[in-house]
Write a sequence for this structure.
């Protein structure tokens, strides 16, 4: 088959650091070519070079066999490269139609010929089954639809080669199936797709060929047929990863927290709780399964004291909670891995050390006079111990936490939240966006906290994570509890139905 | 007080309001264009002041109004290019840069004016003539106010209409809006963000420069130190009150013109209120207008945030 793209010996250096080193990639016409690699393996850098956002420090790009220099996204678009970024590049203040035609110069005259362009877009959307409502503002359509707009936008600009950067990260299972159908249709019509992912199941389902990157270098390119998910995972992280099976706890200890018939904005389907009764015991992990936006955020905020229930009651270690405040819950020894680590978990402009010690600066170990004078030396020593213990990869503990990778940011949060042996840990999507290695680390750490007697409330939209980690599983749908299931040999079919509200 | 209520009074009043508003509208249009593309230029005061001084100097030495106007434009562009180097090339804070430009322009023009005037306090240049548009200028009340004007004012009407069409109907206009709303999205759609921001800033300098030159070459014929006296800031307020659209800004600037005309009228007919208090009126109105506009923001999403390619 004809080769559409070849990237040869691509190198990209940032100072002393090689983000890409001598990478080779070849993409054929009509194939789905997966780029597989952990966070920080260099996938995004390579794609940013392809799309003209970065200039390579060395190497050459060939399109249809001819050498090209891609100095800006505008050039990339002209050369027939379309990119769907993980964080969508849509103008929220505009409609779907305006976003699609935006910046497209293939037009006669200076005025926008709305009718002709609509026709063109509708033809494309029909041909590739890309269903969109052209006149809706971007803010009013679902994430899956926004993604279709992005794909349509690229096709409208004449893209022959589409780069999809972790397109499934924000989608539900059903939406993922829809996306895969669209991808098959696209390659069937002769387009080529570079698919970026680290979800092994999806990679094995959709790829024709797979190129594995590790630490900025190409490991190998393989045909899907000649490999297995386990082998890919091994190539990706550079060592064998034994399948994880955590022992399940069947007899938890006394209740750390219990909710009785708790209501919060119960009329709201997506952001409320309706008559929730549950209990987390010492030394167990209670998993809350459900599709995102069925009251999980509110449940997490409630058991960390951010919001107060409008009905029902909450008991903490056997006594009724009277006032709800985050500080009150922290004093009760409740720890929290929040759902958005950048907005709620860390202060990006502060150092790793400061973030680790955020809750403890008043402690006599780290300050005199009740917090009025900080013992910088003791703080630094402690932070460096934590850096070792939690394997936080940073240049020093003085590095700003915003510059760490997602996995290392999460480890900073773990060090802060788990080191003082909490009675209750509330973990919300704790491994979202993390690679396999970091995910394993977070899971291991949570299991050892459990084994040390901590009660864990795990809220996750990742079903595999719930199944792997939970000693008990509760399904939540539109703010209501649909059922409770055992963690060992869980009835997967029943749970799936419950998650869909049946 | 009966003189307050005659038709000729209102005609003269409205004419004064438009006259006071035209420099604001020029600057406001320039600012609208820059802000649409995501660059806020607090330095409009400095751009106008530079425009005023250089137009005066140009007209004085050459004896030609056209040369004066071109010099005024160049003066305005000089300031906005400076702003562009700081905010676009160096990606520095736009507010700080704008304030610095205001102070720089004040110092620069005062210094050059002192050199030029050599102790003489009064030097006057010729001003643009007015042309009454047949028919339109005979409309009662508004005819004299809007259609018995100079060529720069008519040019302004045309620009207002052209830029309204530009943003509502053209590809380039849509792209300019996208640059101010979501520069990363714009770049990935193939729009050269920095190029568009530069174009917008150059237009900002041209129009701001004309706004300042207008005071000298049409209205006063002289330059005085710090003669813009806050008009640049009022133009910024007009942009916000006008919801970042050319015609909205036009209406808002007219409102400020009316307030200013009103306080002058009240002073001349001897209302028993301190003239200093009356002089506050346009500024007080600016504040009130901002309060009224609170909560209904039309501000471009990425206004004032430097765009760096490849960053998030």
């Amino acid at each position: 088959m004809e080769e559409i793209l070849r990237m040869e010996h691509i190198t990209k250096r940032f100072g002393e650091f090689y983000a890409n080193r001598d990478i080779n990639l070849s993409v054929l016409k009509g194939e789905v070519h997966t780029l597989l690699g952990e966070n920080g393996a260099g996938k995004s850098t390579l794609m940013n070079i392809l799309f003209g956002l970065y200039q390579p420090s060395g190497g050459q790009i060939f399109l249809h066999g001819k050498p090209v220099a891609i100095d800006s996204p505008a050039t990339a678009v002209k050369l027939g490269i379309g990119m769907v970024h993980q964080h969508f590049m849509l103008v929220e203040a505009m409609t779907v139609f305006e976003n699609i035609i935006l910046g497209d110069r293939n037009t006669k005259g200076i005025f926008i010929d709305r009718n002709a362009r609509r026709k063109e877009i509708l033809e494309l959307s029909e041909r590739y089954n890309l269903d969109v409502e052209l006149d809706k503002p971007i803010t009013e359509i679902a994430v899956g639809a926004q993604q279709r707009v992005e794909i349509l936008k690229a096709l409208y600009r004449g893209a022959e080669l589409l780069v999809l950067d972790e397109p499934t990260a924000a989608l539900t299972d059903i939406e993922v199936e829809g996306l895969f159908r669209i991808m098959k249709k696209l390659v069937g019509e002769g387009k080529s797709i570079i698919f970026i992912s680290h979800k092994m199941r999806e990679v094995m389902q959709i790829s024709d060929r797979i190129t594995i990157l590790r630490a900025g270098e190409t490991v190998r390119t393989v045909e899907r047929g000649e490999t297995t998910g386990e082998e890919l995972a091994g190539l990706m992280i550079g060592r064998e990863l034994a399948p994880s099976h955590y022992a399940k706890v069947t007899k938890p200890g006394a209740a750390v927290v219990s909710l009785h018939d708790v209501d919060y904005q119960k009329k709201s389907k997506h952001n409320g709780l309706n008559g929730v009764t549950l209990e987390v015991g010492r030394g167990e992990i209670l998993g809350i399964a459900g599709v995102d936006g069925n009251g999980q955020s509110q449940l997490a905020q409630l058991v960390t004291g951010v919001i107060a229930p409008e009905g029902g009651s909450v008991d903490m270690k056997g006594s009724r909670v009277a006032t709800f405040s985050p500080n009150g819950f922290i004093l009760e020894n409740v720890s929290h891995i929040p759902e958005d680590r950048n907005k709620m978990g860390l202060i990006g402009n502060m150092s790793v050390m400061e973030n680790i010690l955020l809750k403890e600066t008043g402690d006599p170990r780290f300050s005199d006079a009740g917090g009025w004078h900080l013992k910088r030396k003791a703080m630094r020593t402690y932070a460096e111990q934590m850096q070792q213990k939690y394997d936080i990869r940073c240049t020093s503990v003085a590095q700003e936490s915003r510059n760490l990778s997602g996995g290392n940011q999460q480890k900073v949060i773990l060090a802060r939240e788990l080191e003082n042996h909490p009675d209750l840990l509330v973990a919300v999507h704790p491994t979202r966006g993390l690679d396999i290695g970091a995910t394993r680390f977070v899971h291991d750490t949570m299991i050892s906290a459990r084994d040390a007697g901590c009660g864990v409330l795990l809220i996750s939209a990742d079903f595999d994570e719930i199944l792997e980690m939970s000693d008990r599983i509760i399904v939540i749908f539109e703010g209501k509890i649909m059922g409770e299931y055992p963690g060992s040999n869980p009835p997967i079919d029943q749970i799936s139905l419950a998650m869909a509200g049946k | 007080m009966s003189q307050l209520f005659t038709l000729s009074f209102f005609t003269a009043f409205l004419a004064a309001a438009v006259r006071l508003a035209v420099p604001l509208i020029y600057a406001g249009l320039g600012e609208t264009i820059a802000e649409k593309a995501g660059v806020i230029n607090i330095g409009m005061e400095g751009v106008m002041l530079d425009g005023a001084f250089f137009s005066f100097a140009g007209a004085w030495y050459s004896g030609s109004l056209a040369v004066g106007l071109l010099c005024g434009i160049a003066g305005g562009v000089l300031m906005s290019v400076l702003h562009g180097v700081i905010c676009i090339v160096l990606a520095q804070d736009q507010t700080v840069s704008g304030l610095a430009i205001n102070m720089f322009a004040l110092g620069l023009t005062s210094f050059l004016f002192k050199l030029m005037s050599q102790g003489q306090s009064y030097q006057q240049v010729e001003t643009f003539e007015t042309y009454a548009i047949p028919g339109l200028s005979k409309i009662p009340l508004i005819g004299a106010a809007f259609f018995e004007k100079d060529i720069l004012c008519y040019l302004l009407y045309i620009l207002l209409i052209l830029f309204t069409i530009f943003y509502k109907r053209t590809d380039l206009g849509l792209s300019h809006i996208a640059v101010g709303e979501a520069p990363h999205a714009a770049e990935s759609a193939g729009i050269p963000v920095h190029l568009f921001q530069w174009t917008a800033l150059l237009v900002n300098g041209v129009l701001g420069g004309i706004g300042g030159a207008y005071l000298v070459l049409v209205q006063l014929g002289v330059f005085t130190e710090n003669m813009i006296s806050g008009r640049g800031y009022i133009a910024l307020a007009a942009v916000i009150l006008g919801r970042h659209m050319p015609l909205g800004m036009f209406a808002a600037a007219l409102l400020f013109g009316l307030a200013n005309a009103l306080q002058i009228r009240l002073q001349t007919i001897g209302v028993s209120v301190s003239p200093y208090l009356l002089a506050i009126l346009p500024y007080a109105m600016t504040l009130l207008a901002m309060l009224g506009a609170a909560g209904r923001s039309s501000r471009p999403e990425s206004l004032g945030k430097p765009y760096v390619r490849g960053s998030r």
